[in-house]
From TrEMBL:
Cofactor(s) listed in the protein's UniProt record: pyridoxal 5'-phosphate
Stored InterPro entries: Ac/SucOrn_transaminase_bac, AcOrn/SuccOrn_fam, Aminotrans_3, Aminotrans_3_PPA_site, Class-III_PLP-dep_AT, PyrdxlP-dep_Trfase, PyrdxlP-dep_Trfase_major, PyrdxlP-dep_Trfase_small
Family statement drawn from the similarity comment of this UniProt entry: Belongs to the class-III pyridoxal-phosphate-dependent aminotransferase family. ArgD subfamily.
Additional facts recorded: May also have succinyldiaminopimelate aminotransferase activity, thus carrying out the corresponding step in lysine biosynthesis.
Residues annotated to bind N(2)-acetyl-L-ornithine: R143, S282
Source species of the chain: Vibrio marisflavi CECT 7928
Single GO MF annotation: N2-acetyl-L-ornithine:2-oxoglutarate 5-aminotransferase activity
Subcellular location(s) of the protein: Cytoplasm
This enzyme's EC code(s): 2.6.1.11
Keywords: Amino-acid biosynthesis, Aminotransferase, Arginine biosynthesis, Cytoplasm, Pyridoxal phosphate, Transferase
Upper classification of the organism: Bacteria, Pseudomonadati, Pseudomonadota, Gammaproteobacteria, Vibrionales
Protein name: Acetylornithine aminotransferase
Amino acid sequence: MTLGNKVERGLFDEVMVPCYNPMEMIPVKGEGSRVWDQQGNEYIDFAGGIAVSCLGHCHPAMVAAINDQAQKLWHLSNVMTNEPALRLAKKLTEISFAEKVFFANSGAEANEAALKLARRWAADVHGPEKSEIIAFKQGFHGRTFFTVTVGGQAAYSDGFGPKPGDVTHLEYNDVEGLKAHISDRTCAVMMEPLQGEGGIVSPSDEFAKTVRELCDKHNALLIFDEVQTGNGRTGDFYAYQGLGVTPDVLSTAKSLGGGIPIGAMLTTTELAKHLKIGTHGSTYGGNPLACAVAEAVVDVVSKPETLEGVKEREQLFRAGLEAINAKYNIFSEIRGKGLLIGAALNDEWQGRARDVLVASGKHGLMLLVAGANVVRFTPSLVISKQDIEEGLAKLDKAIASII
């Protein structure tokens, strides 16, 4: 399966656990929003590593940060702290509601920390009977057993034995359903401020505001999972800032490191004190190499011109997708916010999102799906207008090829 130093796709089937089904082509190089495979074929990247590569591939600021830090210090442990972690934490508190930061390695780990904090806070302050976690159907919060159970897609959590208890799933955007169920037993409500994996579903203003009001009424924490929506993805640095609703706890990852694995849980000083020494931890969390790169990413993404550019690029995508739809009548709606965009397939195209993905790959375009009926776009936040236009032209040809 290898020819000289060349690794072929067939090797995946030999040596990798089969929980993925990767495309046949193997990327070997990326620059900006373009990627090249082993054969030298070029692709426009509208996927961004699933909303991770927020500055594209090999952005100069990230390359400089990793080269600089790689000459200094890669890893310590949490027996001591380090300068990049402290600088990054300070910047995250300055740019958000938060006063305290816990670093992890992924979105799932950040969510695990958020959920453990909620349970520990409730037990400390209110007693063991206040333990219910409310989450929402079609939500996604990670793949650890706790987070996948809180996520609202049973297919991901079934078949692994008894699940963590006292987790309730309600309908997203159902104000009355939430009002009817939430109680003083509820310790936390966990939600995405825009559902990603569940189909790119935005919350109504009423729903977002009601969740906050009901959490206050019943002394429950509001946890926002901003793993996919955070770090400029929606045009605000965090999506909650565009909703006018502030959570008590926020998880962030994916584009926080721009491609380097890092996650963080953000919260207040009052809540953070419940994670006393020894109650939680992470060997790699706050790793100086990851934090140095993330700091460079935050510096670029938090610039007003970057965030304004996300909103401008959203309009280019919407206009381009509407033009494609006018030709082929494939989408029922274009939804989402910023550069987290979902093109929902209409009745005649139900179940064919992956067909669009595969056809796009054959025409030199990388994109995503969000379920079987939504084509998802999460490109670099600084993708050029030329790359947007060229990528949309490739999408046009891909759709034409499967009509």
